[in-house]
């Protein structure tokens, strides 16, 4: 099943330019959030016991492509479009640091504490030590709330962020070239 999300991701990566041109950045980002919430919902009810519940797991894996590409990749594209040319690398580095650096570290630390406090069983139930359905449901609700907040507060603008005009003399002064 590992290849399922890769094929999905390739397909939606190729479809991304069409969707962003047709629907705009905000709707594509929102679709990424909504599909992530649906994906987690599928994991709540998915399982290997029956064909239907197994199909939910498979659909959740397939939704990885649209949720990842339409949120993370589109966010990188948005930052690239909005940042001044001379700051694009720094802006991309900052978003990577926030999402995959500090965000991952904080998420892993808080996630571990949350799992122990909210979703750990005192005694194993059917061989499980955690309430995985509760954990996926909590994630789905969090993403749904974020999607609503995003819908309310994000304003898409055609304006590019303009670069700050810096006098060459100011740059030379800071570098110690002018006295």
UniProtKB/TrEMBL annotation:
GO CC term, one of those recorded: plasma membrane
Membrane topology: Multi-pass membrane protein
PROSITE patterns xrefs: MFS
Primary location class: membrane
Subcellular location: Cell membrane
Alphabetized UniProt keyword annotations: Cell membrane, Membrane, Transmembrane, Transmembrane helix, Transport
Parts forming coiled coils: none
Leader peptide range in chain numbering: none
GO MF annotation terms: cytidine transmembrane transporter activity; uridine transmembrane transporter activity
Protein name: Nucleoside transporter yegT
Domain Major facilitator superfamily (MFS) profile: 1-179
Gene3D superfamilies, sorted: MFS general substrate transporter like domains (1.20.1250.20)
InterPro entries assigned to the protein according to its UniProt record, in alphabetical order: MFS_dom, MFS_trans_sf, Nuc_H_symport
Listed transmembrane segments: 28-48, 54-79, 91-110, 130-154
Source organism superkingdom: Bacteria
